[in-house]
Amino acid sequence: MLSEALLVSAPGKVILHGEHAVVHGKVALAVALNLRTFLRLQPHDGGKVGLNLPNIGIKQTWDVARLQLLDTSFLEQGDGTAITPEQVEKLKEVAGFREDSANHRQLAVLTFLYLYLSICRKHRALPSLDIVVWSELPTGAGLGSSAAYSVCLAAALLTACEEIPNPLKDKEPVGRWTEEDLELINKWAFQGERVIHGNPSGVDNAVSTWGGALRYQQGKISSLKRPPALKILLTNTKIPRSTKTLVAGVQSRLLKYPGIVAPLLTSIDAISMECEHVLGEMAAAPAPEHYLVLEKRKLSLRVVACQTSPNQEGLELGWSPGP
Rounded to the nearest 10 degrees, what angle do helices 179-197 and 104-120 cross at? Predict the structure, then answer.
């Protein structure tokens, strides 16, 4: 088991094109942000496991011996499959939450318990450790705060339980996991996202795991070749949104009006692919008309998704050349 403190960080994200449609198998283009979530894991032999999330006012401790006695067989079916409502209810029992409660603070705790018990239960004894997570990312703003949280948890717990090696060698201050290790981190982070959002696309945790600019479709990830340097202005309305609710809203519209919504999702897909082509052209020779194409397509996506609130009308995503 890991004997030294471990510091992990992961970036947030912004989906440039394809938001909501990506859940239905369409292309999404996304980039990592220079806003990050940080996690510090401190192993010890105190017989406790602690979770401290100062951004949202969570601080809880569990007795490792009590957790060790739990029947965690209900987690076995969760390896790579969607978490079931029954599993969520069992996790609520462990956390001491009421059955009818599931706000974002409690979901953060359930995600930790799910990943801690799932990843570490293969060992003879659950590890004693303290985890502190803090973030530069606002919650409920569509910037991937939950994905960055899940990626940090997955990376730290996999390292602590020696499922992946500690990338810090010879006391180097910074390290990075191998591609194979990142795949495993991403797999478990996606499971964490499922606890929080129910039916996420997987794009958020992928961007948070690999960083950079990515093309994502149905779990297939590829880096955008030579993406241009762009400045993107993001406006935080301070109006929290639930990704789970928004995704369910699009799904409801698709089921109720398939003849209307399905073609819109196909159009969003075409917009994403067109803008991928434009970004490729910009890398070689950027021109003013490129920015107009990107901006207008982004506004079209926002309208057809029908997911804005009245307070967000009039807000625009602005593009400008990089430095």
Answer: 140
Residue 63 sits at the vertex; the CA angle it makes with 184 and 189, to the nearest 5 degrees, is 15
Compute the distance between CA of residue 18 and CA of residue 12 in angstroms, rounded to an integer.
Answer: 17
Structure confidence by residue, pLDDT tens digits, 166-179 = 887 766 777 788 99
Q: Answer for the pair 54, 39: CB distance below 8 angstroms, yes or no.
A: no
Q: What is the pTM of this model?
A: 0.83
Determine the Cα angle at 260 with ends 295 and 275, to 5°.
25
C-alpha closest to that of 97 among 118, 113, 76, 83:
113
Catalytic residue set: 146, 204
Say how far apart CA 97 and CA 95 lie, in whole Å: 6
- Cβ atoms of residues 117 and 124 within 8 Å: no
Q: Identify whether the C-beta of residue 133 lies closer than 8 Å to the C-beta of residue 39.
A: yes
